[in-house]
Each structure stands twice: as structure tokens, then as C-alpha cells.
Design goal:
Elements (H helix, E strand, L loop, with lengths): L5 E10 L2 E10 L2 E6 L7 E2 L4 E4 L1 E6 L12 H10 L2 E6 L11 H11 L6 E4 L1 E2 L8 H6 L5 E4 L13 H10 L4 E4 L15 H6 L3 H18 L3 E3 L8 H9 L4 E5 L1 H5 L21 H12 L5 E2 L31 H11 L4 H16 L15 E11 L18 E11 L2 E3 L12 H4 L20
Parallel strand pairs: 1-4, 1-5, 6-7, 7-8, 9-10, 10-11, 11-12, 12-13, 13-14
Antiparallel strand pairs: 1-2, 2-3, 5-15, 15-16, 16-17
Helix pairs in contact: 4-6, 6-7, 10-11
Keywords: Hydrolase, Metal-binding, Zinc
Family: Belongs to the metallo-dependent hydrolases superfamily. Allantoinase family.
Pathway: Nitrogen metabolism; (S)-allantoin degradation; allantoate from (S)-allantoin: step 1/1
């Protein structure tokens, strides 16, 4: 007997220092040893790649309040099918939004017993509740989401520049910011032409807003994170600020890395998101930003809604909800394009597991190392398949990836060393910042029993 609860062997284990044959040995839900491939007997995955479970820190679950859009059971089932073992839920579009301690508790109550993966929570920074931020942070949210532009839902208003500076001064936490300048955005016209919608949200709107966020971070010394960067025009300012010591990190999303504005058909509102998908030259510049480290990570911005809100009947980009549901598809979508561009699985893991976990402060997630949670994914990196919406597990199977040929199939997933599948009963835990940052020890929340135009 090896003395371990689980041993997985693979010729392609993606470790922090690269990909190589190895055995991952698990005891009590954590990685106890990383051994040589032939050192310890166990389940042999052969040429299947063994990765840490992906970490998606940008997921709109929408429950409670808009559970008809998405819920914890459906969102986390889809995440698990896509090799994601940890998500962090955005404070909107739930009702109430997660802007007070009672609202956080309602969110936790809605999630408890329904999650197929581990789930943490962002708090929200809105004008009328800035005084609540310290108490909400003490309750365990991982940081605070803020908008500089209309969020698309009335219960989550944006901050102006003074409001953002005030929020940063209120608590020493990570602020994750939707950075678009409302002064540079026009009302999207009622039109079935994607080009008309794209023109209403030009790259300068992102660049100017990112510069404002960087200035606020520079003046306060606080940590900021730029959400769902779509405009590569902002990358030079980000790189310069970082070299000056500004504490800034950046994410982009699978749709900005894999889709091209020129290929979006008229009326195809499933492609609408905010900020928008841009052209192929911009996409190439985002890939360059990933390669040189200016962009830290790739997360989904999973933002589903009922088909009627997507205006698929009319094809009106102006009226359609802006959000793409892709928590199940992020891994194969990014891997398909990444390997075409010469990147390897170690890059994929860095962008979609390690860096999201590090940025959010999710210690024990996103890496195969001794002491980490044994959240594991067996990936067939060469298998090709075609996206069929009916096989997607989020609540409404609407996707711009329909019919797209992708590479990479998840063949097995383990959560804290236990094999899990979307058809299994939920085994995910609710995560709190105070459980994982070492300040108060390990006291994960109990599982208990089973409750317009969008912006990301």
C-alpha cells in the first residue's frame, strides 16, 4: 500500500516548473507528494495531460433574484464539465447584489448545498454602500467589483472617478474594475449590424478608463485589477504603470482571444458582450500581451441570460443583453487558439489556473504543488470536437461557439482528491477570504442543505 488516498500518474503532468512525467499523490484532499512517474503505483493516465483544476474568477451566477438567468447548480455543473474546479462569483446580477453583509449571507444561503465546484464571492462597490466595504471584507469576500459605466442593472450603479478613489481609500482590498469611460460611449443603435454596435464602444473608451484606474491606484497605493480587457490600446499604459510600481493586474477573456469582429454575422446577438469583441489585429495584440506578461490571466466573464433578452428573434444588437456564457468552453477555446500560436499547456495553466488564483488570493488553488488542494483535471489535449449547444450545461445553451471545432476534452476531474462528474451530487465548498489567507485558519463555510443591456 502506498499510504495515499489517490495516486494519478501521467506522462504529461503540468507542474509549476514545466510539463513532465510524474505521479501526483493525494492524502486527505491535498497533494501530499509529487513523485517520479515510476516511483509510486497508481492510476495511469498515460498520455492524458494532468492539470490543476482551472480557476475562473469572473463568473456571474445571478442567484438569488435572477435564477431564471443562471443559478449555482447550473453554473457550477457547467464549470465542472469544463475543467474549472473553483469560481469566484460576481456581486451582480443577483438581487440583492452583494454590497452588504446581509446580502452576502443571502448569496451564501442560495449557494449552500448546490455547488459542484468550490465557490468564492466578490463584494460590490456602489456609491450608496461604500461605508459597508470594511465589514463586507471582514466577512470574507475576496475583493470588490466596481463599474465606471452603467452596469446594465439598476441595483448596481457605477462609481465616478471620485467615487472610485473614495472606495480605494476605504479598505485595503483588491478592486476589480470594469473600465470603460461613459463619456466615450454612445448609445448603441437599434441595428442588426455588429459593426454599428462595435462603433458605439470604441477602444478609446477602454483606454481612457484604464488610465483613470491606474491614476487612482498610483495615488492611493491600492491594488487594482482590470477586468475583461478587450482593447489592446490600453496595454502600453498598463505596462508603464506596472514598471512604475503601480499594483495592477489584468485579465482578458476567451472570446476576445478567439473571435473576430469581421466574422460576426448580422443579427448574431449571441456575440454581444461589453466591452465588445474587436478585430483580428487587436486579437493578435492581446495574445502578445499574454505572451509578454502584461496580461496576467484569462477568465470567462460567464454572463448568461434568457434567450429572449439576447433578442435573438429580432437580431437587435442595441437592445440585446451583453454577455457571453462560456464557463464550460473556456479551456478548449483558449487551448485551440493557444497551441495554434505555439503556446503549451504550461502557458494555459499559468493563464487559467495559477494566475487567477494568485490574484484573488486563493491559496491552495491553481497549482500542482505539495500542500495544495488536490483539484485535478485529466485533459486529452489532442481530441477534437464540435460545440453542440444542447450539450452545454449552463441554464440557457446560447453560445457564439455553436458549430465551432475545438481541441481539448476533459476526461476526468477530481475535487480535493475525489472523482467528480456533473451528474454527481454537489460536493463544492463555499470559500471565504479569511479561510484561505492564513489570518484565521481553515474554517471553510459548511455545505448545509439545499434556493436591458449587460456589462461584464
Amino acid at each position: 500500500m502506498s499510504g495515499y488516498d489517490l495516486v494519478l500518474r501521467s506522462r504529461r503532468v503540468v507542474l509549476p516548473d514545466g510539463e513532465r512525467p510524474a505521479a501526483v499523490c493525494v492524502r486527505d484532499g491535498r497533494i501530499a507528494k509529487l513523485a517520479g512517474y515510476d516511483e509510486v503505483p497508481g492510476t495511469d493516465l498515460g498520455e492524458l495531460a494532468l492539470l490543476p483544476g482551472l480557476v475562473d474568477t469572473h463568473v456571474h451566477v445571478n442567484e438569488p433574484g435572477r435564477t431564471e438567468w443562471e443559478g449555482f447548480a447550473s453554473a457550477t455543473r457547467a464549470a465542472l464539465a469544463g475543467g474549472v474546479t473553483t469560481i469566484v462569483d460576481m456581486p451582480l446580477n443577483s438581487v440583492p447584489p452583494t454590497v452588504t453583509v446581509p446580502a452576502l449571507r443571502r448569496k451564501q444561503d442560495a449557494a449552500r448545498g448546490r455547488c459542484h465546484v468550490d465557490v468564492g464571492f466578490w463584494g460590490g462597490a456602489v456609491p450608496e454602500h461604500l461605508a459597508e466595504l470594511p465589514a463586507l471584507y471582514a466577512e470574507g469576500v475576496f475583493g470588490f467589483k466596481a463599474f465606471l459605466v452603467d452596469s446594465g442593472v439598476p441595483e448596481f450603479p457605477p462609481l465616478d472617478p471620485a467615487g472610485l478613489a473614495g472606495a480605494l481609500a476605504t479598505v485595503d482590498a483588491l478592486f476589480v474594475v470594469h473600465a470603460e469611460d461613459p463619456a466615450r460611449i454612445e448609445v448603441a443603435p437599434a441595428s442588426a449590424r455588429y459593426a454599428d454596435f462595435l462603433g458605439s464602444r470604441p477602444p478609446v473608451a477602454e483606454r481612457r478608463a484604464v488610465e483613470m484606474v491606474l491614476d487612482a491606484a498610483r495615488r492611493t497605493g491600492r491594488r487594482v485589477h482590470i477586468l475583461h480587457l478587450s482593447a489592446a490600446d490600453a496595454l502600453p499604459a498598463i505596462a508603464a504603470a506596472r514598471s512604475d510600481g503601480v499594483r495592477v493586474t489584468v485579465e482578458t477573456c476567451p472570446h476576445y482571444l478567439t473571435l473576430d469582429a469581421a466574422e460576426i454575422p448580422d443579427g448574431a446577438t449571441e456575440f454581444k458582450c461589453c466591452p465588445p469583441i474587436r478585430d483580428a489585429a487587436n486579437r493578435a495584440a492581446l495574445w502578445a500581451g499574454l505572451a509578454d506578461g502584461t496580461i496576467d490571466c484569462v477568465v470567462s466573464d460567464h454572463s448568461p441570460c434568457p434567450p429572449a433578452l439576447k433578442r435573438r428573434d429580432s437580431g437587435d444588437f442595441g437592445a440585446a443583453w451583453g454577455g457571453i456564457a462560456s464557463v464550460q468552453l473556456g479551456l478548449p477555446a483558449v487551448w485551440t487558439e493557444a497551441r495554434r500560436r505555439g503556446h503549451g499547456l504550461a502557458d494555459l495553466v499559468r493563464w487559467m489556473a495559477r494566475r487567477p488564483a494568485e490574484i484573488a488570493g486563493l491559496r491552495g488553488k491553481g497549482m500542482l504543488r505539495v500542500g495544495a488542494d488536490a483539484d485535478l483535471v485529466a485533459l486529452d489535449p489532442d481530441a477534437e470536437w464540435i460545440v453542440e449547444p444542447a450539450r452545454l450545461l449552463h441554464r440557457h445553451p446560447v453560445t457564439p461557439y455553436a458549430g465551432r471545432r475545438l481541441t481539448g476534452v476533459v476526461r476526468g476531474t477530481w475535487l480535493r482528491g475525489e472523482p467528480v462528474a456533473p451528474t454527481d451530487p454537489p460536493r463544492g465548498r463555499l470559500l471565504s477570504r479569511v479561510d484561505v489567507d492564513g489570518s484565521t485558519g481553515d474554517r471553510s463555510l459548511p455545505l448545509g442543505q439545499p434556493a436591458g443591456e449587460g456589462r461584464g
